[in-house]
Amino acid sequence: MPNSTPAQSSTSLGTAFVERNLDLVGKLYQRSVYPSVLDVAHGKRLSAPLVVDLDPTTVCDLACPECISSQVLHHGQIGQDRIVRLAHELAGSDVRAVILIGGGEPLLHRSVGEIIEVLHGAGIKLGLVTNGTQIHRHLDRLAEMLSWVRVSLDAATAETYRTFRPSRGRRSVFPQVIENMRKLAARKKGRLGYSFLLMQRFDEDGRVTASNYHEVYQAGALARDIGCDYFEVKAMLDQDHYTVNQRAEHIELVEEQIARLRALEDDSFHVLHSSNWQAVRHHVDSVQPKDYHRCAVAELRTTVTPTGVFVCPYHRGNPKGRIGDIRETSFSELWASADTTVIDPSEDCRFVCARHATNQEIRLLPRRPEPPELTEDFDPFI
């Protein structure tokens, strides 16, 4: 692992911290994480994954036309009693971190507050991906107990938000979400992110009929004004998780705005590229070949939903990637019998996968004669 530079400005230290938390390969070499990673590299099974993506519900209060989870929405939720028992089961396991996500909107589950309290009380680190509409209902817990909250907004104005993120009542809840984020920003102990998914619509002749590309700078400036720690730009994916190719002029439009946003960065605010936008801007092929047949990361983290447990979020709802049902058994029993090799990355994961580099790194570990230099723990969300 590279050595850190001893003398840096406060801004560069802040940037280094953010980049470190985005370094999925670097996270493998944390002192308490590496032994589990090495076991997986040698083909051993863990008593529990280190990270769980938990979808409490498939219900959502928005009706986004481009929602990549549309096929798994509105198929119920994990029962209130069962999900509380599940939280206690995770609390008694070797799970290090839980991400409340979806599927649907996780904060709509009636037991989500109790789930957060149980997991936080057990020392499990918590992250949340949310549309932000319900933050005010859980403000105290989110401010005190979450390591990070990422809000999916994809707009800088109520008009654009209404276009791409309409509520089921057909009104824009953009002002409510922004106000919720301001309240959280004022009290948070963890990090708060503003997620901006680049989206376009085209007519039959290929002309753009709707777009949020022009609002990247405005959204980033708003994120800073709210008090967010970071603003993240992400590329749109199709329903099969392949990146959607972009025209050169549209990439240039986004990059020009990101360059302007760099002037707003300081030790407390950062502008980030997701891995899929990095792929688009560098014209990487949307098909990412993989020469391995086992996903090691599937042993380190898993995805629990109301309709089944899946090897990862990319395969949420895919029958082939289903490894159990949390409604029918305890988490420990499910994991002990789970076959995390049901997905063959060389055939089933030809999209650009955020954990591809992690899998490649893990494959190399058994061949290295010298133990690596390990870092102190800094982020369990591997």
From TrEMBL:
Alphabetic keyword roster: Iron, Iron-sulfur, Metal-binding, S-adenosyl-L-methionine
Pfam families found in the cross-reference section: Radical_SAM
CDD domains: Radical_SAM, SPASM
Keyword Zinc assigned: no
Annotated TM spans: none
InterPro entries: Aldolase_TIM, Radical_SAM_PqqE_MftC-like, rSAM, rSAM_sf
Domain Radical SAM core stretches: 46-263
PANTHER family documented for this protein: PQQA PEPTIDE CYCLASE, RADICAL SAM DOMAIN PROTEIN
Annotated protein name in UniProt: Radical SAM core domain-containing protein
Species, as recorded: Streptomyces thermogriseus
Record lineage: Bacteria, Bacillati, Actinomycetota, Actinomycetes, Kitasatosporales
